[in-house]
């Protein structure tokens, strides 16, 4: 019996490229006794699909092609499958013929399969008298066997990068949480930021440095890009911790007394703590307090919606934000860090109400470097609120929409 000839060129107007010839050469050079588990190879290709250059839809077609090979192990010479477009489309979840042909071409170009077209372009097999397949025309799965080790190496590299990315993102998250809460503690406890005439002028400057690092974090980036940022955040966290620990050491003699005083001041849980420190009458004071029911006891928007739009504010909460009281106290800390003056914040509270003003502070924090002057921006919104030109709803919905778009891109 004459030796079977394996066609090299595709049928019809399809062109032959050097990449196609290279794939055929790799398939031809594989040892005949080489055997691989077809689904193990397929899983490796799925993991490394971005490196190989195939889409999810193309992998759906490859999955369908593999089901036409009767054995789980790919070995030997009988690796050509010859399904009709109709049957292949059914196993590819009803994929349209034109889409099917496009993704088959992608698999060929990526070197995952090789075309073995018949003289008339049809796919079929010719059997001998004993019933064995003598000649087959269709798609040759030999490259999967020949390149199995290469695909597994790609997949392992991808898994290693994913592990490294997960670790560096965890490190960034922990540093962000620690820095935000330590800054909040430093502000509330009045911890000085300068030691021996050196260091940042105040906690607002420390917070600005922190936000500058956060703004550098891209939406999607490899570990090599995130590692330097994680290192800078770690250094900043260590420096802030040193500030707090140094302050604790200098305050040890009066620690018990100060703790007792704070306990007495907060002994009544029904009194909302002051959100701003006292300041001279010349800076202005509220002429008459507004009833709590209209100013601070409840918000016009659900707290969950506000936190969904402005998640960064939660980083500065000592024990989390579970109610509006927690939110107001956290917003007061954030206000100081953003450099918003007490008078600007008080004016916003007078015009908008306590909770809406606090929501605006959280929104300003969320927008980060997009707002050059937090205090000036708050005063502008306050003026618009006085004339009815500003509403919180569109601002919150814009922030929620922006976060959803970022997640989708990521």
TrEMBL record:
Residues 14-186 form the Plasmid replication protein C N-terminal domain. GO terms for biological process: regulation of DNA-templated transcription. Signal peptide: none annotated. Residues 302-400 form the Plasmid replication protein C C-terminal domain. Residues 285-297 have a biased composition (Low complexity). InterPro entries: ArsR-like_HTH, RepABC_RepC, RepC_C, RepC_N, WH_DNA-bd_sf. It comes from Methylocella tundrae. This is Putative replication protein C. It holds the Pfam family RP-C_C. SUPFAM superfamilies: Winged helix' DNA-binding domain. Residues 253-300 are annotated as: Disordered. Transmembrane segments: none annotated.
